[in-house]
Amino acid sequence: MTTHTGPHPTRRLILQGAASVALIGLGNLPFAPARAAANDKYPEEAFKLKNEADAIKALYGKTAEPSDKIKLDAPEIAENGGVVPISVTTTLDKVTSISFFVAENPNALAASYKIPDGTIPAVANRLKMAKTSSVTAIVEADGKLYSATKEVKVTVGGCGG
Amino acid sequence: MASSIRVRATSNGDITEVQTLIQHPMDTGLVKDAKGELIPAHYIQELKFACNGKDVFVANWGTAISKDPYVKFSFKSAKKGDDLKISWTDNKGGSDETTAKIA
Amino acid sequence: MMKARTALLLGSLSAALVAFALTSPRVVAADKVDPVADAKAFQNFFFQKFPNVKHEDFVNGPYSMNEDMKRQWQEKEEFPPYEFALDAGKEMFATPFKNGKTYADCFPNGGIGIRQNYPYFDTGEGKVVTLELALNRCREANGEAPYSYVKDEMASLTAYMAFTSRGKAMDIRIPDDRRALEAFENGKRYFYTRRGQMNFSCASCHVQSPGERIRAEVLAPALGILNALPIYRSEWSGMGTTSRRFITCNSQTRAVPLEPQADEYRDVEYFLSYVANGLPISGPGARP
Amino acid sequence: MKRSLTLAMLLALSFAPMARAATEADYKAAYAAAEAASKEAAGMRNQWTTTVSTLAAAKKAGDGGDFDRAVAAAKEAEALAKASVFQATSEKETWKAMEIR
């Protein structure tokens, strides 16, 4: 554990924080409702939708474009559909939200995380997958949506090794 | 009753890594029990992490989160000894919260 | 030309002799039970079949056989799902019975770091005593109702006791007692006997095809297969004791399970633990 | 090869076609035979789960008066029980073939 002796950390962060808040403030005026939905209350609607594209639209109000700046880590064959370790990290800047979608699940949206300023844009979690499906991570960075997708095979276990 | 939330928060001076395991059935509402009746949906919807009075991470979960859910993330601007408040609420109005010291 | 032919003849003769010598002592010994030789042969079988699996890694079951699954497992081990059972077991261990005694009073060294010596052969009773049986006996001796052998309480207790022995080498002893050798042999017979409509024995899966898949599951090698018990199985989304594992394995081959802690189960646990002597305890474990 | 041949023969034997509709007496006889074989298998601690379920199906059909199905199920249960008895007796020796030496 190295002790951090740079400029007084809190002052620097406050300045940086103030600047980004102003930016976001400016940025979200035109499509305030969509962003508001993503921000505070529990996105009830999005979690109810079956189809992935609809869920993304309900949650973010726009579509995503694939990006190689997102590293989605998921097993090739899930050891068990009930506990599939999936994690994502990204080098994109100003990330405000990360969500996971499992296309073939009864409801595509599995989880949606809010990434406040100062939080590292990376999440690891364990998802349930009904069957073999594509798993998509959506990252909202600086108001735009980016995605990365991976196929995860899930087979109904029987005997248990 | 021991809290349902197990948490490990360790800081390397700049970045604090947080791992949490929560004891919760996370029933999807699509599974039948031994007698063939549907087990009603019972899952955590929101999980919040706050430090120094500021939300550092908020999870909105659906029914696709594993039983005894686990999540890991990291954040800056906290140091050893700070309090990390963790709280969750589920779709049946159940909730729990705990406070952990960052090691 | 002659010399070459006789050399050839002599060569093949000696080879035959050596082969015969190698097998004959085993054949003779098979009638007389020889656990030491059995354990050596058992371990060598797996060490040769999987030369690049580190010996102590065998106790990690399917994860010693498959890299992708091993990665998923290691990720889960960072904050394993058996964490709750472990805490519950620790708490139960410290909570006194109604008569004020605790489990620590029933076990050597207060029950801490002794799992590697179970099951042991009780020369007084003339039978194998497993950790689960000893725990229930301790409860009954202190006026408490015994726990189910397949439910969470028993799993939590054995999880905690296993955890206190993590890393210690399995150390099962067979006393110089005819009945102990018989129990060992009975366990070995059970291990190799085919049963159920599927006509499988434990060996059909765990000796003939470890590392391969049966439906979606990668099969664990038999060597060290009990070292990780009790286990949290995602399949059960809950804890599983040794008894629960034996019973479910039976029903999966369509054999009607015997009663928990039946002679056959305790003896096969005795056999499998003995042949894994030297390999580390890795319980409680997390499995698919 | 020899063992599975005998198993096949046993199973085939039990499916001899029934000439006329089964009566309750046919059911009782078939059920009793199946139950005896199943008890023998249980006695050898080598009962199969399918024997138990097929025997139960036979009883359910019998109680419901559907004697054709009941007799067929009882026959099958008997064959399964006999096969499990055969398995237990033959395994007494053949297990050694798989033993690691």
Question: What attributes characterize this protein structure?
Answer:
heterotetramer, A: about 160 residues, alpha+beta, Immunoglobulin-like, five-stranded mixed beta sheet, three-stranded antiparallel beta sheet, 8 strands, globular, C: about 290 residues, mainly alpha, two-stranded antiparallel sheet, SoxXA-binding protein (chain D), signal (chain D), SoxZ (chain B)
Describe this structure in words.
Chain A is α+β, with helices and mostly antiparallel strands and 161 residues long. Chain A has a single domain (9-152), classed as Immunoglobulin-like (Sandwich), CATH 2.60.40. Chain A has helices spanning 9-27, 32-39, 44-48, 52-60; strands at 65-66, 70-73, 84-90, 95-102, 109-114, 122-127, 133-141, 144-152. The N and C termini of chain A lie far apart (41 Å). By secondary structure, chain B is mostly beta strands. Helix content of chain B is 0%, strand content 50%. In chain B, the strands form two sheets. Chain B has a four-stranded antiparallel β-sheet, with no helix packed on it. Chain B has a three-stranded antiparallel β-sheet with strand order 1-2-5, with no helix packed on it. The radius of gyration of chain B is 15 Å and the shape is elongated. Chain B starts with a strand and ends with a strand. The mean pLDDT of chain B is 94. Chain C has one domain (34-288): Cytochrome Bc1 Complex, Chain D, domain 2 (Orthogonal Bundle), CATH 1.10.760. Chain C has a three-stranded mixed β-sheet. A two-stranded antiparallel sheet of chain C has the order 1-2. Chain C has a two-stranded antiparallel sheet with strand order 3-4. Residues 18-30 of chain C have low confidence and may be disordered. Chain D has one domain. Chain D has helices at residues 2-14, 24-43, 49-63, 67-94. Chain D has four helices and no strands. Chains in contact: A-B, A-C, B-C, C-D. Chain A binds chain B through residues 1-4, 9-10, 13, 42-43, 47, 82-84, 87, 102, 105-107, 109-116, 118-120, 122-129, and chain B through 11-15, 26, 28, 30, 45-46, 54-67, 69-77. Strand 5 (109-114) of chain A pairs antiparallel with strand 4 (54-61) of chain B, so a sheet runs across the interface.
